[in-house]
Amino acid sequence: MKAMKKGMALVLCLVLCVTVLTGCGGSKALEQIKPQEGKEVYTLTGECTAEVKDGKITIYLTSNLLEGTVACFSVDNYDGEELVNESYAISGETVSVSFDIPAEWEGKAVYATVTAAPSLAKQPGEVTDAYGRYFQNIDGENIIWNKTENIFIAQSGKIEL
Question: pLDDT tens digit string along 12-58?
Fold first, then answer.
């Protein structure tokens, strides 16, 4: 009887090992969405800087984003926690946005970040027509992919408040 229990335990262990190993080996790699056929691929560039003056932090974005692209301007702490954000439509090559600096930010290190993606804000039709529904028609150093879409991102260096 004991031999039978040991045998069953061994068979169950083998079945479990085979199940685990086949489950790990059969997954398909995620693939980035390809640009739309026949559409122009836009190489986006951008630089984000920030200035602290008179109790405000001003974020500057210089980029070649299409006019009307909605971008999210934010101030993030060292741990990546978003402290404040606002979305604005890009108008011109350089855009600036200012935020008041609350007392609780004093003495902290922060970063200014500007992002643009379909999931972050509703983009105008002209922008999605050019960049694609998932921003698949863009590339460049400022572009990252998060399994569902391309994201434009520009971040400043560390800012001591």
Answer: 444 444 555 555 555 566 778 899 999 999 999 999 999 999 999 99
Tokens 């489950």 correspond to: 23
**Domains present along the chain, CATH in parentheses:** 42-160 (2.60.40)
- Number of residues written out for the chain: 161
| Full-model pTM | 0.79
* Phi (first) and psi of residue 52, to 5 degrees: -110, 125
Pairing of strands 42-43, 138-139: parallel
Please give the Cα distance from 70 to 66 (Å, whole number).
Answer: 9
Residue pair 47/59 in contact (Cβ under 8 Å)? The answer is no
